[in-house]
Each structure stands twice: as C-alpha cells, then as structure tokens.
Amino acid sequence: MGTSGPSRVIYGFMSTFSIFFLSLLGIIALVLFPAVSSQAAVSPNVGPASGGTNVTIDGIKFVKVSVGVRHALGLTSQGTVYSWGYNNYGELGNGTAVSSSVPVQVKGIGGSGYLTGVTDISAGGWFSLALSNGHLVSWGYNGDGELGIASNTNSTTPVLVKGVGGTGELIGVTSFSAGFAQAYATNGTNVYAWGTNNSGRLGNNQDGVDSNTPVIVLGVDGVTPLTNVSVVVAGAASGLAISNGAVFAWGANYSGNLGDNSTTNRAYAVAVSGPGGTGTLTGMTMLAAGESFGLASSGTATYAWGDNGSGALGNGTLTSSLFPVQVVGIGGTGHLTGVTSLGAGLYQSLALTNSGAVAWGSNVAGSLGNNSTTASSYPVRILGLGGQGFLTTASSIDGGEYYSMAATPSGMLGWGQSSSTLIGDGGSVVDSLVPVIGPNFQPTSVLFGTASTQSVTNNSGIWNVISPVGAPGAVVIQATANVFGGSTAGVPVSTSWNAGTFTYEAALANTGSPNMLPLGLASAGTVVLGVVLLIALRRQGRK
What we know:
Elements (H helix, E strand, L loop, with lengths): L5 H27 L13 E3 L5 E5 L3 E6 L3 E6 L4 E5 L14 E6 L12 E6 L3 E6 L2 E6 L14 E6 L14 E4 L3 E5 L4 E5 L15 E6 L12 E6 L3 E6 L2 E6 L14 E6 L14 E4 L3 E5 L4 E5 L14 E6 L12 E6 L3 E6 L2 E6 L14 E6 L14 E4 L3 E6 L2 E6 L15 E6 L1 E10 L2 E2 L3 E4 L2 E5 L6 E13 L2 E18 L10 H27 L1
Parallel strand pairs: 1-36
Antiparallel strand pairs: 2-34, 3-4, 4-5, 5-6, 7-8, 8-9, 9-10, 11-12, 12-13, 13-14, 15-16, 16-17, 17-18, 19-20, 20-21, 21-22, 23-24, 24-25, 25-26, 27-28, 28-29, 29-30, 31-32, 31-35, 33-34, 35-36
Helix pairs in contact: 1-2
C-alpha cells in the first residue's frame, strides 16, 4: 500500500535525515578512530614528529614448551629456540656439553648463527628435534641413531635429518616427536621412524634392528605403510598416530600402553581399541604419551590407557587398563571436557582446558603443581605462579621425569623436581610444589630508527612504549630483550628483532597539528551534507 499526504513529507525528511546522520557518524568514526580497521603488530603505526605517542608492539615470548627426561626446549614467538637442563650429550644444542640452569639459545644448522624460522619443537630422552624453515633438524645423543643422520655420532648443534635410506633430507614434515631413544615424523602421508628398534618401536616389522636413518612405519597388515596420518607422538618406547581419524600404536606394550587390549609388543601399527575394549578409538585430534601410558582427546572427551599405578589414566582408580578409559572431571566428578592441548611426563598427565591447566598421576616432588606431593587418580587444577589462583594463561604444557612446565605470556613456569638445572630458573636446588618463574623475557630497549624511547613496559608479551621525537617519515622499530633464568639475573642472553615500522607525520603549517586536515575535511563534508538536506526539505515542501 502506498504513502500519501503529510506522511510523505515526514517520510522524505526522515530518509534524508537518516542518510545525513549515518554519513556524519561515518566521517566522525574515520577521524576519531583511524586505527580500528588495522590490526598491525605496531598500533598505532603513525604519530606526530614531536613524539609522545603511546605505541604497542609485539614483544618476544615463549609460545611452546617441550620437556625431555631432564632437559627442556622453549619456542619463542620470533621462531627461535632456547634450552636448559642437562647437556651431557649436547641435547641443549648450543655447541657445548655443559648443563645450564639458565636458558641458552640453540645454534643454527651446523653451529652457524642461531636456529630461526622454527615452527615446532620436541625434546626426547637425551636429544632434541625442531622444524626450522621447513627443515627437520636434530641434536644431542645419537648412540642408537636417534638423530637420523646416517651415523651414530653425537652432535652438540642441529643437523639435518636424512631421508629414507640416508638419501637427501626428510622433507614435507607436518608432525614429529622425540621418544626416549627413537623419533617419529609424518608428512601427512607416511610415518617415518629412526633410532633404536627394541620392542619394535620403529614399527617397520624389523624388531631389534636399529636404524640411523628413517624407515617407514607399517600398517595393520605389517606390509603396507600406515597412511593419511595427521598426528604422531612418541612414548618412551612406543609410538602413537592418528590415521584416517582412528588411533594406532606400535612398539613396547609392557602395561597395555598400546591400548589394543593386550600386552603384546607390536612391530607394526595396530588399532587402539575403543572404550570397553571393543571397536576402534576414533574422533581424536590430540595425542600424548608417557613412559607406559597413552592419552588421546577430541576436546570434548579424553581417554587414557596403560599403566595406572600412580593414577596417570585419570579415571579415579589405580587399576591399569589394556584399553581406553575415559578421564573423569576435575575432582573426580563427571568427565574432563574443553581440552585444548595434552602433555605427559614420564609418570604424570597434563592438559590445558578452557577453564585452565590440570594434571593427574604421579606427584613426586610436586610434579602436579597443586601444592602437594600426593598422587591423584583424577585431574586437579594446577595452581598459578607462586601458588596464587590457578594456571589459566598457558599456551603449552609438558612434563619430564618428576617435573612439569608450561609456556605462558609472562614466561616459562615450572614445578616439581628442580635438581639445579631442570626448571631453568637460575639454579634453585629446592623442589617446588607450585609453579615458579623459569626462563622469561624482559624488555631492555626500543629504538625508533636511531632514537631510543624512554618508557618500555611489558604486559604479558605486549610492550607499551612512548614514541620519541623523530624526523618526518617511516622508521624501523628495533626491539631488544634479555632472557633470564627465573628471577635470577645472572648473565642474561640478549636478543633483538625488527618489531615493525612507525611513520612520523610532519605538523601542517600554521596549525602545529598533523590532524587538522582530516578534521577540516570532516567539517567540509558536514556543510555539504547540510546543504543537501536543505534542498531536499524545500523540494518536499513544494510537493
């Protein structure tokens, strides 16, 4: 039905006014909030040459931790790697065999410079792995061929993992993991294994035949390769993988840690049984493994199998299981849900959930981080730094022999057995029942070109700085930080990086302000819109 009479005038006026009002709001938003549309690392990235702009930049922080038996690796947001702990065989990768209670930076391939472009890490028994600019590298102990370099010689710096048969290098790796004396990697198609083959842990149906170059893990028929693999992890003497959505396992099966409803070692992959021992465990997206137990989670449901003498299965009992049982909820009520990441020490299980970090199993030396040494057969909340509140900011969690660590925006947190070097907190010999600060970065300076800012604060990895006076034009922001071992200054390691660019704007003549032009344009636009509104109203009046 049409509109007529006085209503038409009112309707026309309201339509014109709406257009004017919305346009005016848009102009005001552009003038007052020019940075809303940009999510750059430098914000804002423009300011007056007179300085004084409050600028935020991405600082350096740890984003992942991987804990071996007695050493740990930390991956940074800059794609570099630091390590700490025991170093008898070069597992810290810094070109020495000297243990360190503070973080040291991992050297580059062959010992040249430092490792860069790293996207993932894994610490094993006495060796380490990392993916650097698409190259899988290894370092540390190599007595069983676990470095995969066609020799059994240890290396104190990263070396390239060879391809199958020792030809070229292993390329296209999407997931990898270091075990006690063996390693696994997948390119999304096959699983590759190298190192010791005791108990069939290389999965190539050649039990007892070690290999210092990668071999292919075989599927359930023991002849054709296990394929379409998305995730692979290593236990102490076994392997786990997700293939076509189902979980498979191979290697040692002393306590049912392969989850196939038996205690028989397997020299090639077998399907992990479903809950209750029937069918196959499917729908899982995350895996972890301890010395003699396995973990898998879909996020909404988490399962465990194998040895349960200390409660590592988390089902509220101390009874071991040859097939998956569901992990119960915090405090033993319901079931654990909202899992975003899994981790495991030799004897304890760890998980990050939507409500914070939890742990269960052995609690020797306080490795559960809940201010006690009592083992738990169900998940308990890990406390926050110094025992205050709960740990809710971790991006990664993992465990070693009798200690555990988590990567947080403020730094690495560690708890459990310290033994001078393990937590990387500068040499404390006191075990801790609650998380303490380990390796962490602190800002030292920020340069805008060659000018130094006088104010730098660190807010969980986001740095706030005040721009100094500068000449008109774009400059590079150079940030520098020191990495410390806990609260112990010692002799800190320094690192610098390009944090982005910042453009100094010159002040306009006769105004002293670089922002008058946008405001002038906004005012002119307002006048034009006002004229349009008056013309529209007059036309409506004539009608």
